[in-house]
Predict the structure.
Amino acid sequence: MTQTQTTAALLATATAAAGTITYAALSAQSQLFGKLLIAGSNPDEIALTYDDGPNDLATERLLDVLAQHNVHATFFLIGNYVRQRPHIARAIASAGHLIGNHTMTHPWLAWQSASRIREELSSCNAAIEDTLGIPVRYLRPPHGARRPVVFRIARELGLTTVHWNILPGDWKPIGAGEIAARTIRGIEQAQRQHRASNVVLHDGGQAGLGQPRLPTIEATGLLLRHYQTQPQKKFVTIDHWNISPA
């Protein structure tokens, strides 16, 4: 093999390795770096989950919509926002929704040091537990980004790492109808795969408090009205599919 061929082979190997690492770190359903809770096996079960709250402009309105349909959801909260808006976090808990850890400041955990990862997770746990007086058992890494140390630290803190199988992209400038339509298509695809549906929506945003998430609230209402005519469908929180922390 010539030097040029050797160099090309090494570059191809490095590129393939980088691709594998990126897939393991960022793909929503990759289990290469650790065991994830994604969704159960009953295709009639739907978990609505909301990231990046609590948020002044959206969360309490969202709680009203969920209450109108007697549906409980899962909220992954940012610790800094819990500290700033404890009354909204308490409203979520008082309504019976499940609350999880979405880190203190919403960094890409896959690229952080072990000490930073621990600080992000433990500080968010403390913010939620100090405010609500309840333990936190679930973590959703921001952007889904993780590496093995994220799983190890999560386990040490008693947290099960949660991802998703439906991501409608409601943080983008799209309307409520499109958010709902994308979600329904995702649920139908999960049903064809004989899987439950774990839907990621957003009642807040990493850029700060006051994010305009009203299309998501409207889309939630559309979804709940769509499925209220299908009594076999059951809305659940992600602890319904509980696994040991991993």
